[in-house]
């Protein structure tokens, strides 16, 4: 079970994904957060 869990974690979290432009999920998330945090103030309307 540990071997499968380790493989699943590596597959889902550590390896680059083609759908994320060959970035790891954490790299993609960091870039997404950076891009969205810069635009948050400009998207607010009252």
Gist?
The protein has 46 residues and is mainly α.
Give descriptors for this structure:
single chain; 46 residues; mainly alpha; elongated; Integrase_cat-core; IS3 family transposase
Structural commentary:
It is a single chain. The protein is mainly alpha-helical and 46 residues long. It starts with a helix and ends with a helix. The model has no long low-confidence stretch (mean pLDDT 85). It contains two helices and no strands. Pfam families: rve_3. InterPro entries: Integrase_cat-core. This is IS3 family transposase.
Cα radius of gyration in angstroms: 16 Å
- By secondary-structure content and strand pairing, the structural class works out as mainly alpha
- Distance separating the two termini: 53 Å
Quick one: biggest sheet?
none
Question: What is the strand and helix layout of this fold?
Answer:
Layout: H1 2-14, H2 25-43
């Amino acid at each position: 079970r540990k071997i499968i869990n380790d493989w699943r974690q590596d597959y889902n979290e550590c390896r680059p994904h083609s759908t994320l432009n060959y970035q790891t999920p954490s790299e993609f998330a960091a870039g997404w957060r950076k891009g969205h945090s810069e635009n948050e103030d400009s998207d607010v309307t009252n």
